[in-house]
Amino acid sequence: MSETVTLEALPGPIELDLDHTALIIIDMQRDFLLPGGFGEALGNDVAQLQRVVEPLAALLDAARAAGMLVIHTREGHLPDLSDCPPAKLHRGAPSKRIGDPGAFGRILIRGEYGHDIVDELAPLDTEVVIDKPGKGAFYATELSKVLADNQITQLLVTGVTTEVCVHTTTREANDRGFECVVVSDCVGSYFPGFQRVGLEMIAAQGGIFGWTAPGAAIIPLLKERAPAEPAV
Ligand code: TIU
Description:
Layout: E1 5-7, E2 14-16, E3 21-26, H1 30-33, H2 38-41, H3 47-50, H4 53-65, E4 69-75, H5 86-89, E5 101-102, E6 105-106, E7 128-132, H6 143-149, E8 154-160, H7 162-175, E9 179-188, H8 192-207, E10 211-213, H9 215-225
Parallel strand pairs: 3-4, 3-8, 4-7, 8-9, 9-10
Antiparallel strand pairs: 1-2, 5-6
Helix pairs in contact: 4-9
The site of tricarbonodiimidic diamide has 7 residues, from helix 7.
Pfam families: Isochorismatase (PF00857)
Domain Isochorismatase-like: 21-208
InterPro entries: Isochorismatase-like_dom, Isochorismatase-like_hydrls, Isochorismatase-like_sf
């Protein structure tokens, strides 16, 4: 049994086993975050999501330094849209649907510039990138296998948006037996009300499907674990 560290979280402290914890970064894609992109074209305030980039970059740095498994996800579809159910494809305003031309290429299509992750959080070659057709990261992906292969039991969940893909993935993970800490300043919603209530919903009822904690509570625990810088 590996050693655990205590994270102060809501609804109460959680013992984290950092040897069996992964950082998952949900859908920090240009289509959702950049001005002029799909998210903004739908009338959303992308500044609400951009606030997440800086604290998440700090958490990502600390996770990398601690040697933690890092998993990035991207929501999107094959160019022929064969993996996009009609119920999803026909949603939203005409000309702003999945597969339509957008400011950064075809909207939410794999291989397009807008589908990829923002530069500040670009995955390293050694990190896992999961392409997912749904809101949840487990549906129709290899995520379960990646987590099993790496003996992961706990997840630090980050990314966008809080009430959609972060919630769906956290609920999926909770049902599969993972303990999830949703990092409160490293998740974002276009809607401030959804951000607040979305976080409250996770930790309510004694942590009905997870815990919440800010990055500032997690980073020091990761730094304690990181190998010391060699003396010069
Ligand atoms: N990643 C994710 O949350 N996808 C969405 O579609 N989110 C919205 O809030 N629309």
